[in-house]
Design brief:
about 75% helix; mainly alpha; about 230 residues; about 0% strand; homodimer
Chain lengths: ~230, ~230
């Protein structure tokens, strides 16, 4: 039997590669959702996807490269949900903008879990091309969210909205970790009366802080380097 | 020669243990300040302190137990600095309160580096007693800062101040990591025009966000569970 033409074999091989990449990303998503991002190893991802760990390296250099794909997915999904939550020409109250941002983000627990780990660990372990791809997706989706918010509200300018979106993501990432401690630490918060205030209701607390940020950003020109002098 | 009395030997041994603990904490502080918290290993701490790594286990169970001592130190140092920055009976503008909180925190880079890692990793690796000690110190120092701020300002109530302090620590921890990327990631931000907005001036951005939070928290009763209904 003659072998199939080169173009056909290349297409098969590209298709095979795409399917493998998708399987690995799916496996990482499932494991990270079930057990928390922090515990997901490359070996566990490979096992879950039914791929030998040595073969994973053909598609990804490290667990961080796979997890950064999920970070990009998270940004696209968050922007899509904000787009559905905010109507153009709504009353534009910054508190409603804040609720749309915080409410849609709190619906994405895996993305919240990932957010604290991007700068702290993923960007220290992944290849530069994976870092660039995730960072470009983040910038694009921040702009998409800024389009939606500025169409719904004339009370926050574009610079304020971009700041609010970035700060919401930072706060959500940090707060998610505090609000989801190990069982042992949750037990401490429950049993030691001195530590009761450490227990956090994630969506409630995130919404409060993002409302405060949005209200504060609207009211004051605090002097971003691009927007004039710092208020004295 | 007869051996020294038991009480004397116990005192010597307690003193020896205290000195070892201090040496190890000093070594961890130096290494974490020089190279970043994330890279500090138990072996590196032991080597720096001149203690064999197997002997470290007599004093600490893990690197996380040592780093949580530095977290407690950070909270005490931050509270002391806020106490010096805010005078009782000052005009109490929430923006000045915010500047005192953000300005003093930005002077403590090691503490800022640690803050993002407490819930994400240190509390997942340390013993429950180290976690409890650091968490109790945090609660005590948040109360100390709340005493200072409420004496300087009658425009924020105690609940608002505690929320502001906790949110400032969360934001500072997350923002510090974003603002201090690896050389490779900093190069990406510099060289790829799409990523220029990702570069962050840490003290400036922290001050802006904490001002917005303080202003927003003062102006609105966003409805903490302890403080009434959510604004409709």
């Amino acid at each position: 039997m003659s072998s199939p033409p080169v173009a056909f074999r290349r297409a098969r091989s590209a298709e095979h590669k795409e399917r493998r990449v998708r399987d690995l990303v799916d496996a990482a998503r499932t494991l990270a959702s079930e057990r928390g991002v922090r515990t997901v190893t490359l070996t566990a991802i490979a096992t879950r996807a039914g791929v030998h760990v040595s073969a994973v390296r053909r598609y990804f250099d490290s667990r961080a490269d796979i997890l950064l794909v999920l970070v990009g997915e998270g940004w696209r999904e968050w922007a899509a949900r904000v787009g559905r939550a905010l109507q153009p020409g709504a009353d534009g109250d910054p508190v409603r903008v804040a609720d749309a941002l915080a409410g849609t983000l709190a619906e994405l627990p895996l993305f919240c879990d990932l957010l604290a780990q991007v700068a702290l660990s993923l960007e220290r372990e992944a290849t530069v091309e994976s870092i660039r791809a995730a960072a470009v997706t983040e910038r694009e989706q921040v702009e998409t969210i800024a389009d939606v918010v500025t169409a719904a509200s004339d009370r926050l300018d574009r610079g304020q909205v971009c700041e609010l979106v970035a700060a919401t993501a930072l706060l959500a990432g940090a707060l998610w970790q505090v609000a989801h401690p190990t069982g042992e630490v949750a037990g401490l918060h429950r049993d030691d009366p001195r530590l009761a205030p450490a227990a956090v209701d994630f969506p409630v607390q995130l919404a409060r802080l993002v409302r405060a940020l949005a209200t504060g950003l609207e009211l004051e020109d605090f002097g971003s380097p691009g927007r004039g002098a710092v208020r004295g």
